[in-house]
Amino acid sequence: MSINAIISNSLTGLFTNQAALRTTSNNIANINTPGYARQVVRQESIVNGTESGGVKISGIERIVDKFLVKAVYDANADSARFSLENKFQGRIQSLLGRPDQNNSLSGRIDNIFTSISEMALNPLSGILKESTLSSINQFGEEIGGLVVQLQNMRADASNQISEKVSRINVLTKQIENINPLISRETLTGGEPGALLEKRAQIITELSKLVDLNIVDSGNNGVQVNTSSGIMLVGAGRNILQYSPPGVVTSSTPFPRITVHPVDSVTGVIRPSNTELDSELTSGELKGLLTLRDKELPEIALQLGSLASGLADELNRIHNLNVAVPAPNSLTGINSGLLATDKHNFTGKSVFAVTDASGNLVAKVNIDFGAIGSTIGDVITAVNTGLGGAGTLALNNGVMSFTAAAGTNGVSVSQVAGSESSRAGRGFSHFFGLNNLVEAKAPSHFDTGITGTENHGFTAGGIVELEVNNANGVKLGQYSLTIGGSTFNDILTSLNSSSLSAFATFSYSSTGQLVATPVAGVGDIALHVKTDSTSRGATNVPISSFFGIGQAPRMDAAVNFKVRKVFNDNPGQVALAQLDQTAVVGGSALSVGDQTGALALKGLENATHVFARAGGLSAATATLSQYSANLMANLGSRASLTESKMKDNQALSDELNRKSSDISGVNLDEELANMVIFQNAYSASARLLNTAKEMFDSILRII
Questions:
Q1: Nearest CA to 444 among 427, 460, 432?
Q2: For a designed S-S bond to 423, which of 127, 210, 510, 562 qualifies (C-beta 3.0 to 4.6 A apart)?
Q3: What is the pLDDT of residue 681?
Q4: DSSP symbols for 50-68
Q5: Is the peptide bond prior to 325 cis by the omega test (within 30 degrees of 0)?
Q6: CA 458: distance to chain centroid?
Q7: Please, are residues 132 and 125 in contact by the beta-carbon 8 Å criterion?
Q8: What's the average pLDDT block by block, 10 residues per block, for the chain (702 residues)?
Q9: How far is CA 123 from the centre of its chain?
Q10: Where are the alpha helices (DSSP H) in 345-448?
Q11: 351 exposure class (CB count in 10 Å sphere: 0-12, 13-18, 19+)
Q12: Rounded to whole angstroms, how far apart are CA atoms 647 and 208?
């Protein structure tokens, strides 16, 4: 071997061991860096023809188990998702309070019935009436505040979605920039280790935001996709876009997260209809979408169901009774009905006018089966029967009943054994003539219509509907344009639309519009995006008339309160009952009559039929029982989410530990390697020095 060959070999040894020492020092420096994968220098002999030419670095490898890395990414996504959901559930539990506390929903309901019980013992006490109304208003403030807070949490989730989307775009941009640098270093025999480590750290952070599938694209390059196959980074890059709404209410339509290709030359973002929402299976982004579109709305629906049940029962009893003295006028809610509509009532009601002393001035017993078929016919029959002492009227969907004399009062009562009924509610209850409480939305949507009746909606009005699955992911949408003449024509339009792939539409026996999921579709929910329809002059759109979508059912708990007329004058609370046997001039109302108060008290043990709402099954239960079921359901949700968080965190920790066992830095091993590489470096240096001495000796001889 020539002296030049010795020098060449020693130099390659110096350079190789120098690089090995540099890699070892980097490993030691990162011994406490989370997620860092140790690097190993791979060496191979240099062969020049038939002769050995020293040593070179064939590569610097990150020691990782690719299967474990994929498992870690998946576990990170699940753990991050449920950790985020658990934080929101914790906030919900803190808002609800403990069931045994007076400020919880159950405690508020108990307070209502305690106040009613005390009022029933002394119905003449103005203080006890005020106390009862106050307890109802406190319940309304509590449950309404909860629903508003839930909408605020949806807004918070939406804003966090925007933040996560922005962060994802930053991370994918970084990966796009690093990928070609790694490939260039790999192709030119450089050292891509540091860049590989940087990219791995970025992908680890990204895996907590969305579920990932990493594909090797050659030369140490990678393509980053979601688990469902949507490319985030590859030969190019896709950017995510999301614009959160400013104010969030129960009816706020949330935009979708869209995926847009980016022109690699100009940077122009191209339009796209690809949506990410339905493609995600895990990660913080999935958790936020689940909270915004499923978990929080379902809880709001349950609260709305409780509020509507309480309102419906309080109003039912209150409409059966009358104050002493009776009010001069009763004004109902906007029913959306027209005078030309069929009344569809069965049974009998008594419409009466009494004076300030409770003596009967006039009354008429209306047998709905013996008069004309329309609401206008009912109005005519009542007004004729009262002979001018009182007037029943329907103006723009609102029924009213007014005494002619300012000192007289009016009442509507049921005939025992032959009670009036439309969709299960008496005349006064159906039109809300003597409702005790009100809210942003009605307590029921039992319209009492039949399919063959004229629908009454102005032709050409449009309601834009969207159908979502149980997770809030859009399945389809349809713009219904009002046409035809009957309610069945509306059904025909819906059942022949694109929505028919997901639901079949029908009317229930009580006149509700029902959307039954098609087999295999699973649970669905309708959402109203826009509605320009109106039923005659009532200004009631079709979505409000039928209560389409989730918003009206949530809003049954918003602005829940005692009506202003009773807050202003508690003496107008209906606690007595009309004596239907009284003759004109005789006493029909008695001061101190506690019949109505006792009926209100009886609601504590009376059952109500609650429809399925937000994961709570349909049930026939008392208000307290349903409230307890609701609280138990919410507690179960929180407990389940916490359990999932702990399970997935444990799995993530275990997988990260196993990955660290393989990829982590072992200080003893690195110190041993340092000694080996240091000695090899010293030996190469000594060899180089020996070659130099040999050259010097030759030169002295010459």
A1: 432
A2: 510
A3: 83
A4: TEEEEEEEEEEEE---HHH
A5: yes
A6: 33
A7: no
A8: 76 80 81 77 76 74 74 90 92 75 76 92 91 95 92 94 96 92 81 83 93 87 91 90 90 90 83 89 94 92 94 96 96 97 97 97 96 97 97 97 97 96 97 97 95 96 91 88 96 95 95 93 89 96 94 94 96 95 95 91 90 85 88 88 91 82 74 83 83 78 70
A9: 44
A10: 375-386, 427-431
A11: buried
A12: 16
Question: Rounded distance, CA 214 to CA 227, Å?
Answer: 9
Please state whether 413 falls in left (phi above 0), alpha (psi between -120 and 50) or beta: beta
* Cβ–Cβ under 8 Å, residues 467 and 499: yes
Which of 378, 364, 360 lies closest to 427, judged by CA?
378
**CB 313, CB 606: distance < 8 Å:** yes
d(C-alpha 231, C-alpha 362), whole Å: 78
**Cα-to-chain-centroid distance, residue 190:** 51
Q: Cα separation of 318 and 575, whole Å?
A: 8
Q: Cα–Cα–Cα angle for 45, 49, 54, nearest 5°?
A: 25
Cα–Cα distance measured from residue 432 to residue 548, given in angstroms and rounded to the nearest whole number: 20
Classify burial at 143, counting beta carbons within 10 Å of its beta carbon; exposed 0-12, middle 13-18, buried 19 or more: buried
In 3-state terms, what secondary structure has residue 324? coil
Place of tokens 């001018």: 388
Neighbours of 488 (CB within 10 A): 15
φ and ψ at 49, to 5 degrees?
Answer: 70, -110
Helix, strand or coil for residue 480? Answer: strand
Tell me which residue of 374, 336, 342 sits closest to 548, measured CA to CA: 336
Contact 336, 397 (CB under 8 A): yes
Would the CA dihedral through 667, 670, 675, 681 be positive or negative? Answer: negative
Among candidate residues 557, 101, 92, the one with its CA nearest the CA of residue 306: 557
Q: How many C-beta atoms lie closer than 10 Å to residue 370's C-beta? A: 8
CA dist 466 and 478 (Å) reads: 6
pLDDT value for 528: 92
Q: Which of the 8 DSSP states describes residue 464? A: E
Which tokens hold the place of 583?
């003759």
Q: Which two tokens stand for residue 41?
A: 């220098």
Please name the amino acid found at residue 460: G
| DSSP summary character for residue 292 | I
d(CA 484, CA 492): 10
HEC string of 72-130? HHHHHHHHHHHHHHHHHHHHHHHHHCCCCCCCCHHHHHHHHHHHHHHHHHCCCCHHHHH
Q: Would you state the pLDDT for residue 63?
A: 63
DSSP-assigned beta bridge partners for residue 352 = 363, 411
Q: How many CB atoms lie within 10 A of CB 668?
A: 7
CB neighbourhood size of 320 (10 A): 22
Structure tokens at 486: 């009957």
Which of 434, 369, 374 lies closest to 399, judged by CA? 434
The pair of structure tokens assigned to 602 is 């009886």
Q: Residue 67 class from Cβ within 10 Å (0-12 exposed, 13-18 middle, 19+ buried)?
A: exposed
Handedness of CA 209, 215, 218, 219 (dihedral sign): positive
* Rounded Cα distance, 359 and 325, in Å: 10
Distant-in-sequence, close-in-space partners of 540: CB < 8 Å, separation ≥ 6: 334, 336, 397, 534
And the tokens for 398?
A: 């609102």
Helix, strand, coil % over all residues of the chain, rounded to 5: 45, 20, 30
Instruction: Confirm whether pTM is higher than 0.85.
Output: yes
- The rounded distance, in Å, linking the Cα atoms of 617 and 630 is 10
| pLDDT for the residue 3 | 78
What is the rounded CA–CA span in Å between residue 476 and residue 499?
A: 6
Place of tokens 């309404």: 144
At 631, list the tokens.
């609280």
Torsion sign, CA atoms 671, 676, 681, 685: positive
As a whole number of Å, the end-to-end CA separation of the chain is 21
As given in the structure block, the two tokens for residue 223 are: 């393509």
